[in-house]
Design a protein that fits this description.
The protein is mostly beta strands. The chain has a single domain, classed as YVTN repeat-like/Quinoprotein amine dehydrogenase (Methylamine Dehydrogenase, Chain H, 7 Propeller). Helix content is about 0%, strand content about 55%. It is built from 1 helix and 30 strands. The chain has a 4-stranded antiparallel beta sheet with strand order 1-30-29-26, with no helix packed on it. A 4-stranded antiparallel beta sheet has the order 2-3-4-5, with no helix packed on it. Strands 6-7-8-9 form a 4-stranded antiparallel beta sheet, with no helix packed on it. It is globular. The two termini are about 15 Å apart. The mean pLDDT is about 95.
């Protein structure tokens, strides 16, 4: 069921619902647009929206223009008193923006940059907060990964090392063991690093499972032993990481088009939303050693890049429903929709 849609001011590549109480209706969307010519320019923006699913309404609250943005993430709940949005941009900066709400009601929402750090002369492609919101891992276009500390609104790069041979498209903390950091790259390698043992200490590296570049890695919030990976080779893979030095590829499902993003449902174990680049979006149910596509969403007409679940479930026609936001690149399209409720519960 479609709730609302709009077009952004540039090529849309990431959407993130705010997870914090009282702000769960707030949606951030980012863009990256390459302006070609004698002096190429990579421009971007972050737009804030208020989503009212019951009224089928999407209202833009605020927009800020900046360098091209590859990724955005809200800080985890519990790690900080106020919502913060981190962004990774084409100028090699990691920036932290605070969500501000004024006295003018919904229209008072805005983003204010509180800190920015030049991480590298290469582009920042991806970021992830640790569970306590005290560190951020950043993937870089030269194959490096950086770990930045965040305390009292200050950012400092603590470690940086060459982790892969090509673009590092994804990096994430293990939410149950945050001293572990996962990375994936165009070199087809799926790696894990132990921050306790120095910046270049490999916990494992798998170079055989993915036949093309690794685009996304995400730990299950419900199962401490399960990690999911997505790849340009069009497969979503389920890994058992109980033996961290030798993860086991338990199952996989072909989604088509390249698996760019995977997002776990906030409340339903084993339910994930995947952005499949050339093949729209998919809702996948994972049960043990089985993975099944239970729904497709194909109302975007361009590269399917950004996807997220809302942490607030609206009541539509008397039924509590899950809410999803997705975006696609070249058509600059943002859509908010509700998956078929009988399939996601």
């Amino acid at each position: 069921m479609d709730v609302a849609h709009c077009h952004l001011d540039g090529n849309a590549d990431a959407v993130e619902f705010c997870p914090h109480d009282s702000y769960r209706h707030v949606l951030a969307a980012s863009t990256y647009t390459l302006q070609e010519g004698d002096q190429p320019n990579r421009a971007g923006s972050v737009s804030l929206f208020s989503v009212d699913a019951e009224a089928r309404h999407l209202e833009m609250l605020h927009r800020v223009s900046m360098a091209g943005i590859f990724d955005i993430k809200w800080n985890p709940v519990g790690g900080h008193s106020s919502p913060l949005l981190a962004q990774a941009d084409t100028d090699g900066y990691l920036r932290i923006l605070r969500l501000r709400s004024g006295s003018g009601g919904a229209d008072g929402f805005s983003l204010e940059e509180i800190n920015g750090k030049k991480v590298s002369s290469s582009m920042c492609l991806y970021l992830d907060w640790n569970p306590s919101a005290t560190s951020i891992t950043v993937g870089l276009s030269d194959g490096s990964v950086a770990i930045a500390s965040f305390a009292e609104s200050q950012l400092e790069v603590q470690e940086k090392w060459k982790a892969h041979d090509f673009e590092l498209w994804t990096t994430s903390f293990d939410t149950h063991q945050p001293h572990l950091v996962y990375t994936g790259s165009d070199d087809c390698k799926f790696s894990c690093w132990d921050l306790r043992d120095g910046p270049s200490k490999l916990a494992f590296q798998n170079s055989k499972a993915h036949t093309m570049g690794v685009c996304c890695i995400t730990k299950s919030p419900f199962d401490p032993n399960t990690v999911l990976t997505g790849s340009y080779d069009e497969n979503l893979r389920v890994w058992d990481v109980r033996a961290i030095s030798r993860p086991v590829n338990e199952t996989f499902v072909g989604l088509g088009g390249g698996v760019w993003r995977i997002k776990h449902h906030p409340f339903v174990p084993g339910l994930v939303l995947a952005a499949c680049m050339h093949n729209g979006f998919a809702v996948v149910k994972i049960r043990g050693n089985e993975a099944e596509v239970i729904e497709r969403y194909s109302k975007h007409e361009s590269l399917a890049y950004g996807a997220d679940w809302c942490r607030e479930e609206p009541v539509i026609d008397g039924i509590r429903s899950s809410l999803v936001a997705t975006c696609s690149f070249y058509d600059k399209l943002l859509r908010v929709w509700i998956p078929e409720s009988n399939k996601v519960k």
